[in-house]
């Protein structure tokens, strides 16, 4: 049989060579298409500049969301939908930087996760600017020093970021997008710590709760000590020999700890939500959310009156948070997220019904649902 | 004139719509081509696994360098060559993760820049693992716990990273690649510091030197104080009211400082070089470098004898560093980088000439020159 005489490695080598040539050919085509895409993006910028030199807006959140959703719908594989969308995010990011580099302020120090969120949302080509406080991110956007800001809003280990909510009450800045980051918990300790001799595990109370099953199975004898934050846990462990902390990867780098075990969270969908803020109003993308602040008088049935129109007009509420009113005059302030855009007919009906009973209704923005 | 009757905004809108349709069409084609590329990559992995299930190597540094160089050569614009190469880096990174996710150890804490270098070299799909010390990065690669490591080798503010050099002397790990990061210097201070009242500027001596012109022009009255590192400068400024630090963006985040002025370095090409280390030997890419360690006896003319063969055989030396020998027996150790691959004829001739006079010659690796 002549076939069996052919050594497999020779046939394999021939196939590898062919595959490489095919990849080179594909790369050439991808190169040309991305270049044509960039050319189109430049032309879009020219047309916009000609039409309105002062006010031309190059970044359109609803358009980006549509492109990414379509890519995910049509993706034939073998790359995962999210992987493919991330690649298109970068292609759009590079094309946009060609029109005009996007500048984005974000909550700096503790929140290196916030910078990660900014890069995830805008791609690697965005210029990010760290700010020391949430209200300074708002101010920077308000002053036009940057086009957008990124602030944390919900954190599965720390709960809602109240400071962000409060800043919205007094600001005219809009929400133009949202982004989620999956956050993993790792067990970490100093380089001299022996895993078998760990007697204490520090972390934020919610992180300890989220890793309960793992701790029960692998460290049943270790005492669990709740501290203010995961970063605080990591900092403490630095100076102790028999202790470990549960925290994110960034904390292990900051405090020079070794990761003993990765991803020990019981539920794999531990995530933090961030908002993209800006001065512009966003068009419908087809899959949108809207955020509101509503002030209600503190009287019987107030909450029922607030919620009824959502139900009446088929508007799907996804979140409701109450906060004491900053003016303090016996009113409640509610933060509400729902599915839909203020240009949708049922949303408009619900809003006008709410406006009849509420002291004040402020739309923080309609924006595309986070795609990635 | 009928043309002038047509409002420009209507014509513009039509063109914008057409451009968007064209972009959507291009995206569809790009999507299909990237998917076909991923399919090819998967098939490559299958063939390699069939041929050599235990030892199959999926990441080929010379092949990646070739792809990126070709992309940059053929790039028709308008995207810059580096931008286009970064996009292809991500496409390759996503395809490679499909075959088998790449794991890379890097020097952790101080060197968050090192992680940045790892992502720049391997793309966003790589899994990075922080290690507390350079020799632990080597050990992790040696043990096969990760496929590659990333360590700093030259830093324009700190000079050569001697610890990395020394570790190569005793290790069998090879250099498989190099990557450069451009590093910017910013002036930063605490949030309560008034720019006009700054009387002291802290930084590493070399950073102060690199920002001399800017300091002369804008802060001639401020005292310049050299400290151990830029991170140390940032840490100090935290507690002082009239002081500023010169450091990188990461330091401002870590120590909660505000950036007063960005990119104050006199020369814009301030950069840090990192090495990619691994167990494999790398084929020629066509644009390679080689690194050597040579031990010489301390006798008259030793350095001349070492350098002459490079000149004789037309080998272009790019770096020469001398270090005291760790064995301490009156020998010198030289670290040499030159252009070329150990498979090149002239390199082989030069090496055999050097071997005649040197106590020991150790090739640390031939690897593709950094493309990005």
Automatic annotation (TrEMBL), chains A, B:
Pathway(s) served: Metabolic intermediate biosynthesis; prephenate biosynthesis; prephenate from chorismate: step 1/1; Amino-acid biosynthesis; L-phenylalanine biosynthesis; phenylpyruvate from prephenate: step 1/1
Entry function: Catalyzes the Claisen rearrangement of chorismate to prephenate and the decarboxylation/dehydration of prephenate to phenylpyruvate.
Protein origin, superkingdom: Bacteria
Ranges in coiled-coil conformation: 9-36
Record SMART domains: CM_2 (SM00830)
Main localization, broad class: cytoplasm
Protein name in the entry: Bifunctional chorismate mutase/prephenate dehydratase
GO cellular component, as recorded: cytoplasm
Keyword Coiled coil: yes
PANTHER family in UniProt: PREPHENATE DEHYDRATASE P PROTEIN, PREPHENATE DEHYDRATASE-RELATED
């Amino acid at each position: 049989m002549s076939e069996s005489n052919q050594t497999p490695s020779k046939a394999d080598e021939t196939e590898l060579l062919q595959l490489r040539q095919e990849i080179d050919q594909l790369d050439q085509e991808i190169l040309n298409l991305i270049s044509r895409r960039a050319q189109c993006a430049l032309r879009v910028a020219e047309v916009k500049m000609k039409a309105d030199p002062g006010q031309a807006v190059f970044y359109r959140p609803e358009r980006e969301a549509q492109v990414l959703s379509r890519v995910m719908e049509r993706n034939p594989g073998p790359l995962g939908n999210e992987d493919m969308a991330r690649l298109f995010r970068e292609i759009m990011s590079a094309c946009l930087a060609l029109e005009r580099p996007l500048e984005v302020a974000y909550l700096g120090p503790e929140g290196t996760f916030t910078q990660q969120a900014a890069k995830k949302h805008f791609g690697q080509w965005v210029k990010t600017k760290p700010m020391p406080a949430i209200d300074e991110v708002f101010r920077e956007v308000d002053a036009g020093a940057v086009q957008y800001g990124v602030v944390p809003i919900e954190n599965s280990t720390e709960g809602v970021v109240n400071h962000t909510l409060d800043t919205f009450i007094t600001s005219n800045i809009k929400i133009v997008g949202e982004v989620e980051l999956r956050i993993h918990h790792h067990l970490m300790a100093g380089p001299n710590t022996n895993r078998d001799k760990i007697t204490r595990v520090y972390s934020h109370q919610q992180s300890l709760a989220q890793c309960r099953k793992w701790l029960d199975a692998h460290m049943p004898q270790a005492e669990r000590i709740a501290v203010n934050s995961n970063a605080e846990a990591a900092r403490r462990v630095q100076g102790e020999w028999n202790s470990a902390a549960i925290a994110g990867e960034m904390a292990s780098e900051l405090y020079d700890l070794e990761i003993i075990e990765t991803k020990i969270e019981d539920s794999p969908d531990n995530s933090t939500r961030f908002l993209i803020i800006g001065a512009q109003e966003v068009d419908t993308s087809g899959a949108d959310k809207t955020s509101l602040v509503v002030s209600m008088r503190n009287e019987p049935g107030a909450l029922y009156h607030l919620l009824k129109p959502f139900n009446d007009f088929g508007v799907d509420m996804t979140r409701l948070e109450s906060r004491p009113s900053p003016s303090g005059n016996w009113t409640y302030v509610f933060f509400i997220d729902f599915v839909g855009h203020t240009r949708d007919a049922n949303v408009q009906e619900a809003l006008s019904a709410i406006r009849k009973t509420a002291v004040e209704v402020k739309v923080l923005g309609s924006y595309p649902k986070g795609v990635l």
